[in-house]
Design a protein that fits this description.
A hairpin with an 8-residue loop joins β2 and β3. The relative contact order is 0.16. By secondary structure, the protein is of the alpha/beta class. Helices cover about 30% and strands about 15% of the residues. The protein has 3 domains: about 240 residues, Rossmann fold (3-Layer(aba) Sandwich), CATH 3.40.50; about 200 residues, Dimethylsulfoxide Reductase, domain 2, CATH 3.40.228.10; about 130 residues, Barwin-like endoglucanases, CATH 2.40.40.20. It has 28 helices and 28 strands. It binds ligand MGD (2 copies), iron/sulfur cluster and molybdenum atom. The site of one ligand MGD has 33 residues, from β28. Molybdenum atom binds next to loops.
Length: about 750
């Protein structure tokens, strides 16, 4: 997701194209954060307001722009944007608010949080954020929580690249990034960047193809990338883990791996061979529905047309076999010799002269006894402190710091465990919940549980642009600024060592503030001012850039991108950041945690005949980022309603017509959707879009939280044992048994 798509040394000085400067217009070079890929774009400013977003002057980035970015100024100027702090006056969910000052709000929040901590301990405070959107947290929240003593931080990255990063660390100690510029083969496990989704990655893939790279796509649906692929495999949803075993089987049987690398740099190869032996291609074909021949063809292409890459995919972050599927991708990378080589997947480490957010977070300040209380650590430890503890020493040895929090996903509590503690006090009560730039109610599995959890809080604080369903259940709703209204330094989520600056283009409206500023206020409210010794974001960036010998404003004037010189095969110097110093095909960390040290495949539970179809959620809609954006009329008219995407065959069998409203039901609940028939959908599988609510609809519980309680996919998503990954405890969203019922026959 980070900016440029190369692992070659990059230091792009600022490029301005005078022919593109219009008379009388001020321009600012900004990074779009209307999704989480941070395109470099230009903001045109007139009379203190951004009037237009256009593409970058730098030819490298000129094509990196999409409809969401272009419409951002409209989104941020919406009349219903939250511009002042609001305090709840009616009962929770009544939708009644009064305007208060920031100072009063923070004084009360601080006092109430102190009381909760005094009564229940610091672990009774949980925070959910999306660092992508808030953009300016920069680890300050974790820093404060670590000093207060709460380990209970969660984020949507638990189902996105964050958990993938944590699991990758088990195998080779750092989550690598693809070198699209030099690769010869790209394997997309479902991931489907397109013209309105992660445009820089879409462009990088297309460029790679033009340069002769092959494209293999694994997707049950004929996606945009499937159409552009050299080879398209369409497995049954949720069976990626089995398919990956099939690829490995062919590569091992035909000895297509890098023997020298395996001999010198891996442990557990013989055990792996034995485990893969349990997956003959006919078994894989039976599980996935893909033919043995096409599986073999994909494996050969990946292994012999390298260096190849398997870009990050959220699809295997959201499956019952997630940990194994992520590990299998790592194992493929490693044994084929594609780790940390040009055209393969680079392991950058930290930028040596810019203070990383991981260091800002100060995880070493959280006492071990508090780390041990992190919710979910006992049962689902993989991405918790406990799960990652054995990697601390190796990380220090190789990367210079014990807590590399790549993609912010390596030291999280388990979201479901946090919601259980909030709702039922089990295993201990959580009574204060902060959602910062995160629409928590809609952004995890099992919405009814999250709703109960929120209703059972003594203090809910939300920082937002709009009155989201989550905000509607808060005690305080605080006004957040936007990416046009603050300076920003993007660190590529600590995934790669690239840094990109973003200039502030306009003043925030009303009393909107950054999440960084919220945390600074919070430090004051908790009598911990000394933890945030910087007056504002610019000073904080100046501090982080000190070793580079440049202040933020100069940095932003000078560079489009900054990275230190990148080297390859760094492991030859320090080994890998794992306990053995090698690539752990057999994971000592998983073994010590009591799990199978080898990848395995857990079949679907027996089908309940009441739910004859499968549904998946998570396909991204062009116009919206996740649960946001529905308030922008220009976008909304393009996709006005949540649809159920279904094949012509399944629609005919179910007697459904396009445009008809139906209910989709799983064992967890039901939502309402409009039927949309698509011939790129396979029979038997239906697709439910993520994140629907209607900002224009009545607010509060009486209005079903702006219809979120009727429309959100999170109602359908299950978090019971059969639908959770064993090691991480993240939900299976790809292939959930469902049924479709006419609206009038549902209760
Ligand atoms: N059920 C289900 N859950 C999912 C997924 C799914 O497919 N289904 N997908 C998962 C994935 S991949 C991800 S990445 C996560 C994303 O989960 P979230 O991070 O919660 O993503 P959004 O829904 O975009 O919520 C972000 C909120 O921040 C607000 N916002 C935007 N910009 C700013 C800002 O600058 N400042 C402040 N203060 N607020 C801002 C927006 O109005 C929006 O309400 O969800 C995950 N959860
Ligand atoms: N416009 C827009 N762009 C976005 C976002 C957005 O909200 N809006 N969100 C951003 C974020 S946070 C993320 S995480 C990315 C996600 O973007 P992607 O990684 O592209 O993920 P999705 O769009 O959810 O689904 C991609 C493909 O996975 C396929 N798929 C479904 N189930 C399975 C399965 O079981 N196995 C396999 N192999 N494939 C399957 C679907 O058919 C679909 O074509 O998009 C980013 N880009
Ligand atoms: S892909 Fe679109 S929304 Fe995402 S950062 Fe780029 S311009 Fe913004
Ligand atoms: Mo995501």
């Amino acid at each position: 997701m980070p900016g440029p798509t190369t692992t070659a040394p990059v230091e792009q000085k600022r490029v301005m194209d005078p022919s593109r400067q219009r008379h009388g217009l001020a321009t600012r070079r900004v990074l779009c954060a209307s999704c989480d890929i941070a395109c470099s774009v230009v903001a045109e400013v007139q009379q203190g307001r951004v009037t237009r977003i256009r593409s970058s002057d730098n030819p490298l980035f000129r094509d990196n722009i999409c409809v969401k970015g272009v419409m951002a100024p409209k989104s941020f100027a919406h009349p219903e944007r939250i511009r002042h702090p609001l305090k709840r006056v009616g009962h929770r969910g009544s939708g009644r608010w009064e305007r208060v000052s920031w100072d009063d709000a923070m004084a009360d929040i601080g006092a109430r949080l102190k009381r909760i901590i005094a009564d229940h301990g610091p672990e009774a405070w949980a925070v959910s954020t999306s660092q992508w959107n808030t953009g300016t947290d920069h680890g300050l929240g974790r820093r404060l929580m670590n000093h207060v003593g709460s380990p209970n931080w969660i984020s949507g990255v638990a189902m996105c690249a964050g958990n993938t990063a944590a699991i990758n660390r088990f195998t080779y100690g750092w989550y690598p990034w693809p070198d699209y510029d030099n690769t010869r083969c790209i394997l997309l496990m479902g991931h489907n960047p397109h013209k309105n989704s992660w445009v820089p990655i879409h462009n990088a893939i297309r460029r790679a193809q033009k340069n002769g790279a092959k494209l293999i796509v694994v997707d049950p649906r004929r996606s945009e990338n499937a159409e552009a692929a050299d080879l398209w495999l369409a497995p049954k949803a949720g069976t990626d883990g089995a398919l990956l075993f099939g690829l490995l089987r062919v590569i091992l049987d035909e000895r297509l791996y890098d023997q020298a690398f395996v001999d010198r740099w891996t442990v557990g190869f013989d055990d792996l061979v034995e485990r893969v032996g349990e997956f003959p291609l006919d078994r894989v074909a039976a599980i996935t529905g893909c033919g043995a021949q096409e599986i073999a063809a994909a494996a050969r292409l990946y292994a012999t047309h390298g260096p190849s890459v398997i870009p990050w995919t959220p699809i295997t972050d959201m499956q019952r076999n997630s940990t194994s599927a992520i590990r299998l991708q790592g194992i493929l990378r490693a044994i084929c010799g594609y780790l940390d080589v040009p055209g393969g997947e680079g392991m950058h480490g930290f930028h040596p002269r810019i203070v990383p957010e991981s260091v800002v977070e100060m995880h070493e300040a959280l006492p071990e006894a508090q780390k041990a209380k992190q919710l979910g650590a006992d049962k689902y430890p993989a991405f918790t402190y406990r799960g990652q503890a054995a990697l601390r020493g190796p990380a220090r040895r190789v990367w210079g710091y014990e807590y590399p929090n790549q993609v912010t996903g390596c030291f999280m509590a388990n979201p479901t465990a946090v919601f259980n503690a909030m709702a039922d006090g089990d295993p201990y009560p959580v009574k204060a919940f902060f959602a910062l730039g995160n629409n928590a109610l809609l952004s995890y599995a099992n919405l009814p549980l999250i709703q109960r959890a929120l209703m059972n809080q003594d203090l809910v604080v939300v920082q937002e642009h709009m009155m989201t369903p989550t905000a509607q259940l808060a005690d305080y709703v605080l006004p957040g600024d936007s990416w046009l209204e603050r300076p920003w330094m993007f660190d590529a989520f600590g995934w790669i060592s690239l840094h990109k600056p973003s200039q502030q283009a306009m003043e925030p409206p009303g009393e909107c503030e950054s999440t960084w500023q919220f945390w600074k206020r919070m430090a004051g409210a908790l009598d911990m001012d000394e933890l945030v010794p910087w007056d504002n974001l610019r000073e904080f960036y100046d501090w982080r850039l000190e070793k580079l010998g440049i202040d933020f404003e100069t940095f932003a004037e000078t560079y489009d991108v900054h990275a230190d010189k990148l080297e390859f095969r760094k492991y030859e110097r320090n080994g890998f950041a794992t306990p053995s110093g090698k690539v752990e095909l057999r994971s000592s960390v998983l073994e010590d945690l009591g799990f199978d040290p080898l990848p395995y495949y857990r079949p679907d539970p027996p089908r309940d005949p009441d739910y004859p179809l499968d549904m998946f959620t998570g396909v991204r809609e062009h116009e919206y980022f996740q649960t946001g954006g529905r308030h922008v009329p220009e976008l909304r008219k393009r996709t006005p309603e949540p649809c159920l995407f279904i094949s012509p065959g399944t629609a005919a069998r179910q007697g459904l017509a396009a445009g008809e409203w139906v209910a989709v039901e799983t064992a967890n609940g039901r939502i309402e959707v409009m039927v949309a028939i698509r011939d790129n959908m396979p029979d038997g599988l239906v697709r439910v879009p993520h994140g629907w609510w209607k900002p224009e609809a009545d607010m509060g519980l009486d209005g079903n939280l702006s219809q979120a309680l009727k429309l959100s996919d999170a109602i359908l998503c299950r978090d019971d044992e059969d639908f959770m990954d064993r090691e991480q405890g993240i939900p299976h969203l790809k292939g959930v048994p469902c049924r479709i019922v006419p609206l009038e026959s549902t209760s």
